[in-house]
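Researcher: Predict the fold of Reverse transcriptase zinc-binding domain-containing protein.
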Amino acid sequence: MGAILLPAGTIHDIDKRCRAFFWTGDGRCPFCVRTETTSHMLLHCHSVQPIWSALQALHYDASSCESLEELLTARHPPDKVHSTVLLAIICNIWKRRNAMVFNNLIKLPHLVIERCSNDIALWSHKCGSSAPKALMNDWSIMLTHLARWL
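Model: Structure tokens for Reverse transcriptase zinc-binding domain-containing protein follow.
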């Protein structure tokens, strides 16, 4: 991960990057028969609903967002730590999808959340100031407990 904290108000065109660099297959979701779009894969597929449901403290209803941009801008005022946590979740949902596509492995929701926790803990070491670092550590601890509970 190059960017640790996303600047407030900055949205990277994740959908475009996914299509340009990573998209493979016949266009169908590996978890269901629907057309695989970035929004479907990361927000709307039935296979990611348990993950977003468990993470309601982070975003009350991620599946109601039409796009990643809406997900990342839904919080007012924008919060860099919140954006970073969302980025960890999105990346790990993407890795879960790749595990299914390339290795035929289904990663359970608690494993995805545990990996998010580990990534956030690792990324927190790159924070320059103590306030975001403490918040990221809090998120990491919360996600660790959540993963154990699932």
